């Protein structure tokens, strides 16, 4: 089911614990940030190929999450059978949002077969400075000749479909400071299907993000914590932090 960006608001409104070994000393943002962190589940994709990711999407879909975000670059065709399994699982789930990103300043577009199968596609949303430090994110970007919502903002819009228009009205095209929240507040699971099925309550009704969470140093960003120290954090965790920041606008 495909929609243009211009009607998104109308449509939406009507260990990993063991694997995530990088230092994540963070600024703890009290109150509503804790509540919203509980609404997000992070799934470690590990070394799954596209066959495995397709099966993962199908497993997660059975637990009925609000949305499944895939924070991976699906930029080219790979194995026909595995690509078909992944696209079919995305079509059947009908709530998968894909992330696109940039490599060395150049946009890496999602392969058409995956963007066609996805519910929506959004640009990743993390802003990296010239010195390599990531200290902000964006909710909207002037891209491809029009304003588009970023990946974390599209995921945040699914939190409360009755308030999607309200949330969109409070956003703008500027960069927002990337505030770090306590990593242990997020629900984190490995991609093992038996573990996921036995923990379906941790998936049900939540914003689910599939991405790298260890043990390899893939999709790593350098950020400043509240003490001013440089720490390295997985991009999927930063996306979750951005979603919390976006959802806190509902409390203002």
Question: What keyword list fits this structure?
Answer:
three-stranded antiparallel beta sheet; 31% helix; 252 residues; single chain; disordered N terminus; alpha/beta
**What composes the largest sheet?**
7 strands, mixed
The rounded Rg comes to: 17 Å
* Mean residue pLDDT: 84
Query: Strand fraction band?
Result: 15-25%
Helix content: 25-40%
For the record, the count of structural domains works out to 1
H/E element order: HHEHEHEEHEEEEEHHEEHEEEH
Structural class by SSE content: alpha/beta
- Please work out how many helical segments DSSP would assign: 9
Instruction: Report the strand count.
Output: 14
- Contiguous low-pLDDT stretches (5 residues minimum) are 1-30
N→C terminal distance: 32 Å
| Shape summary | globular
